[in-house]
Amino acid sequence: MSKGKVYLIGAGxxxxxxxxxxxxxxxxxxxxxxxxxxxxxxLLSYRRQDAELIYVGKSPDRHTMxxxxxxxxxxxxxxxxxxxxxxxxxxxxxxxxxGEEGEELRKAGIExxxxxxxxxxxxxxxxxxIPITHRDFTASFTVVTGHEEPGKETSNVNWPRLAMDPxxxxxxxxxxxxxxxxxxxxxxxxxxxxxxxxxRWGTRPEQRxxxxxxxxxVEEVQKAGLKSPAIIIIGQVVTLRDTLRWFEDKPLFGKxxxxxxxxxxxxxxxxxxxxLGAEAWEYPTIKIQxxxxxxxxxxxxxxxxxxxxxxxxxxxxxxxxxxxxxAQKLDIRxxxxxxxxxIGPKTAEELEERGLLVDVMPEVFRAxxxxxxxxxxxxxxxxxxxxRADLARQVLVDSLIQLGAEVNEVIAYxxxxxxxxxxxxxxxKLQDKEIHVLTFTSSSTVTNFLTLIGxxxxxxxxxxxxxxxxxxxxxxxxxxxxxxxxxEKYTIDGLVEAIQNYFTK
Length: 505
What we know:
- By secondary structure, this protein is α/β, with parallel strands linked by helices.
- It is 33% helix and 21% strand.
- The chain has 18 helices and 22 strands.
- The protein has helices at residues 21-29, 67-79, 98-107, 120-127, 159-164, 178-187, 217-224, 241-244, 263-275, 295-302, 315-327, 345-352, 367-374, 395-402, 423-431, 443-453, 470-478, 492-504, and strands at residues 5-10, 32-35, 52-55, 58-59, 62-63, 83-88, 111-115, 141-145, 168-172, 195-200, 208-213, 230-234, 256-259, 279-282, 286-289, 309-312, 339-342, 383-389, 406-417, 437-440, 464-467, 485-486.
- The strands form 5 sheets. It has a 5-stranded parallel sheet, with helices on both faces.
- β16, α11 and β17 form a beta-alpha-beta unit.
- The chain starts with a strand and ends with a helix.
- 40% of the residues are buried.
């Protein structure tokens, strides 16, 4: 068997968008992912579904594995011929023991690559509004381990030199040794009035910053109850924080929002939430797929020109309909004189991108509003084609028939239970109270979510629940959930606006 390859990947400080393109590519192709505590677990969602996960996280009081054991795992998996992604917070070669892991791999004759990551020494202060260099204050910075045992007879840290260094000092992993760090710097001549900041879980919703001076920072940190992991920044650049802070001033900062839409659709909602400072945690509960039998849809597509009206109720319906048109070598000319009704601006945009202008779009995006908008336009005997989801409400069909229309309802797509969700990881986040908002964009997302979490409903108590509209909210309430937010505009933009208003009112 051929030997495998190990990628030593820097995952960056926490915000998943700060991983490098190459780092993400390595995760996507790995057979095995060995990951630690500081690597954002959201990155694991990009893995192949058959990839093996091995957690080797370390905390100050508990190590899942020793470093020697981690080295052994990497060697063993490499010798099996596996492609291994060793996922580490920050950069593997900046106090990340990546060098030690690389040495062991080289001894074993296993090919490896180091994939650099953005170190927390630079990125975390930036998210707190602290540039570690600034021409008005300093032209250099020094990164130092804060993890050295205080009782060591001989220190590897040159305290006299550090104390006299005019540049910014950055200590990594130093919260537990903060009193000794301060004491050593002041004892060796550092001005006790020098500004200092500690930043915990930088770039994440949990980011927390405590500032002070060398003279009072120990007391301030104790008062705030700040724990690891955190980095320490010392120098005049700390005074720029009030001017340059930006991350914590975003309206949804500190909120981790669960997005339950299908994976294909989730990115739009996630991006809008993250632009406002939230962290979007994608947990798809539904999957959009073709009907089991395409015969009815294909026949409707072939005969589309014989209909007076075609009513599209969603973007998914438009995509499914035109996919079958393409499969049958048809284009919009096949629609002839059929008029088009669309529910929602996104559905209308999807149609317009395909060269179709919408004749009717109700102001309110639900079935009842469609009937109100079309009641004076439908003539008795008009043929109406309704391509939509398999689980759609019956009210639209019934109301069109009452207006005298001949309705052909065809299943354009199915909404099924997602099969690629990491429920265990979600339950852990819920258990740790790290999810602040649940979003539901359809009734299916509600029912599937509750099915997936099973008997763990107590874990969502106290979490803010946001629904895209009254139909989804009604489903949630029928299932025993308390809905806190219901969008007035039944769109993704409307949902995001409602969430923002709720937390900023």
